[in-house]
Specification:
The complex is a heterodimer of chains A (about 200) and B (about 170). Helices cover about 80% and strands about 0% of the residues of chain A. Chain A has one domain. Chain A is globular and about 60 Å long. Chain A has about 200 residues and is mainly alpha-helical. With about 170 residues, chain B is mostly helical. In chain B, about 50% of the residues are buried. In chain B, helix 5 runs antiparallel to helix 6 and helix 6 runs antiparallel to helix 8. Helices cover about 75% and strands about 0% of the residues of chain B. Chains A and B meet through helix 1, helix 2, helix 5, helix 6 and helix 7 of A and helix 1, helix 2, helix 5, helix 6 and helix 7 of B.
Chain lengths: ~200, ~170
C-alpha cells in the first residue's frame, strides 16, 4: 500500500511543480526534507526512549499485571465468551493499558499476541472469518485510547507552543467519541450481519 | 500551574516508586526499555524518512494548495479548518506521513493557531487505521475481516468532526 502512496505523491509533485512553475522549489525541497527527517527522528527518539523505559519498569515490577486484574470486570463484559483469567484476556488488558499510557509501539506486540490467543481460545469452525472479539480488539486499536498524546505534545513544544498540553481535554473528548462511535458501529453491524447469515 | 502538566511527571514518578517498592531494579529495567525504544526508532526510521521527504516535496510542489482549494468550501462549512484537509486524508494510511504533515501545519500556522490546535487534537486522538488493521489481521488466519474497516472508519470520521468542534468550544472562544 505504501508503495502507491510514495510513488503517487512523487509523481503528483513533479506534475504539479511543472504546472505551477515550482520545479526549483521542488528540487530544493528534496534536499531540505532529508535534514528535516533526521531532526524529526531525533525528537521522536527521545520520547519513545522515555516511554519504553517507563513501560519496561511497569512490566517487570508487576504493575501491568495489577492493572490487568483491575480491568478484568469491564473488559470481560466487552469481550464476551473469553475466559476471564485466560491468556487472551491478559494480553488484551496489556494491549489496552499500553494504549492508555500512549505506548503505541509497546501495545502492538501485546495486540498481536492477543489476536493469536483469541484465535486459539475460540477455535472457530470458520477460521477464514474474523471473530467478533478479534474485530472488537482491532477496531479498539484503530481508535486512540491514549491518555497523554506525547507525540503531538512534544512536537507542539518543539514548535514553541505556549501550552503544549492545552489540547488534553479536546483529545479526550475526541478519543471517547471516536471509540464510542466505532464500538456502536461494530455492535450494529454485528447484529445486521448475523441476521443476514441466518 | 496547569493541572494537566502534572500527569506526565506523576505517571513516571508513580511507576518508578511502585518499581522501587516491589524491589525491581528500576534503573536496569528502565535502560533495557530505552534500548528497546532505540530499536523501535531504528525500525521505523526508513519509512519515516521516505514519507517526510515525499510529503515535503508534495507540499513544495504547490499540489496541496490546489487540493486544499478544492476542499476549502466543504470543510469550512462544517467548521473544520481546511488547512487540516491533507492530514485528515493521510491520517488513516500513514503514521509517519501524518506526523510530517502535522509538522508542516505547525510550521506554517503555529501550534497555537486554530488549524494547529485541531491538527494536534486529531493526531492525539486517532490511530493509523489501515496499518493497525493490516498488522492485527496479518497475525491470524482470518482473511475476511467482515465489518472491521467500516466500524473503524466511522470512528475516524467521528474523531475528526469532534476534534474541530471541541477546539471551537474549549480553546478558541
Amino acid at each position: 500500500m505504501m508503495k502507491w502512496v510514495m510513488t503517487g505523491l512523487t509523481v503528483l509533485s513533479l506534475v504539479f511543480a511543472i504546472c505551477t512553475g515550482r520545479v526549483n522549489e521542488l528540487s530544493a525541497a528534496f534536499l531540505e526534507e532529508c535534514g528535516n527527517a533526521v531532526t524529526l527522528a531525533i525528537t521522536l527518539t527521545g520520547i519513545i526512549a522515555l516511554w519504553s523505559g517507563v513501560m519496561r519498569v511497569a512490566q517487570s515490577s508487576g504493575l501491568t499485571r495489577k492493572i490487568a486484574a483491575a480491568a478484568a470486570p469491564v473488559l470481560s463484559r466487552l469481550f464476551g465468551g473469553l475466559d476471564r483469567n485466560g491468556k487472551a484476556m491478559q494480553y488484551i488488558t496489556l494491549n489496552i493499558t499500553a494504549n492508555i499510557l500512549g505506548l503505541g509501539n509497546a501495545s502492538t506486540p501485546f495486540g498481536i499476541a492477543a489476536m493469536k490467543a483469541i484465535e486459539e481460545e475460540e477455535h472457530s469452525s470458520t477460521p477464514e472469518y474474523a471473530s467478533d472479539n478479534m474485530i472488537l480488539l482491532a477496531v479498539m486499536n484503530t481508535a486512540s485510547l491514549q491518555l497523554i498524546p506525547t507525540t503531538a505534545a512534544a512536537l507542539r513544544l518543539a514548535h514553541g507552543s505556549a501550552d503544549p498540553m492545552e489540547i488534553l481535554p479536546c483529545v479526550w473528548a475526541a478519543s471517547v467519541c471516536a471509540l464510542t462511535a466505532a464500538l456502536l458501529a461494530a455492535g450494529l453491524l454485528r447484529q445486521r450481519r448475523k441476521g443476514r447469515l441466518r | 500551574m496547569n493541572l494537566t502538566s502534572l500527569i506526565v511527571p506523576a505517571v513516571i514518578a508513580g511507576v518508578l516508586i511502585y518499581g522501587v517498592c516491589t524491589k525491581t531494579d528500576v534503573f536496569t529495567e528502565f535502560t533495557a526499555g530505552v534500548r528497546e525504544g532505540l530499536h523501535t526508532v531504528y525500525d521505523i526510521f526508513p519509512s519515516l524518512f521516505c514519507l517526510v521527504v515525499t510529503v515535503g516535496a508534495f507540499r513544495a510542489s504547490g499540489a496541496s494548495e490546489v487540493i486544499t482549494g478544492i476542499l476549502t468550501p466543504a470543510l469550512g462549512a462544517i467548521g473544520f479548518p481546511p488547512e487540516c484537509g491533507t492530514l485528515l486524508i493521510l491520517r488513516p494510511f500513514s503514521g509517519s506521513g501524518s506526523i510530517a504533515i502535522f509538522e508542516q501545519i505547525l510550521t506554517d500556522f503555529g501550534p497555537d493557531s486554530f488549524p494547529g490546535r485541531v491538527a494536534s487534537v486529531i493526531l492525539g486522538s486517532s490511530e493509523t487505521t489501515f496499518y493497525t488493521l493490516s498488522v492485527y489481521f496479518a497475525s491470524v488466519k482470518s482473511k475476511k475481516t467482515r465489518y472491521a474497516l467500516a466500524a473503524a472508519l466511522i470512528g475516524d470520521i467521528t474523531c475528526a468532526l469532534v476534534s474541530a468542534a471541541a477546539v471551537n468550544l474549549m480553546l478558541d472562544q
